[in-house]
Design brief:
single chain, alpha/beta, 5-stranded mixed sheet, 4 helices, 5 strands, about 40% helix, globular
């Protein structure tokens, strides 16, 4: 296929679920790049504007991340600071976690590697 062919477009599935205590879980599955970054940005910013306590960004299904995707994740952190909502990144695959380390974002973002349903509980209790 040629570069830019419609069939080469990256795909990203985004699932948003509300949780008790005012935490919103945003889970991604696929590729977060130039083609999909705007989709996640819109959904993530809506979640940050609506959440009362925290937004948990679950990256367990993320297979690829480029600089556009990193920009969305950092933009979420910046938006969270403005709205006063706790912002937690969880379950980043090793290759994605290495990107956070290389860029220094591992020192800025809050991470939670918890695998269970109560991963947002700490975020809920710390926002109270």
């Amino acid at each position: 296929m040629t570069i830019g062919d419609e069939h080469d477009r990256a795909t990203l599935e985004i699932t948003v679920t509300g949780r008790s205590g005012g935490t919103v879980l945003v889970a991604v599955d696929g590729e977060l790049d130039y083609d999909t970054a705007d989709d996640l940005r819109a959904i993530l910013f809506d979640a940050l504007d609506e959440a009362r306590a925290a937004v948990v960004l679950d990256l367990a299904g993320l297979r690829f991340l480029d600089s556009s995707g990193l920009g969305v994740i950092v933009g979420g952190w910046q938006r969270a600071r403005v709205t006063g909502v706790r912002y937690v990144v969880r379950r980043a695959p090793l290759v994605i976690a290495e990107q956070f380390e290389m860029t220094g974002l591992s020192q800025v973002l809050t991470f939670d590697e918890h695998d269970g349903e109560d991963a947002g509980a700490e975020a809920d209790s710390s926002a109270a």
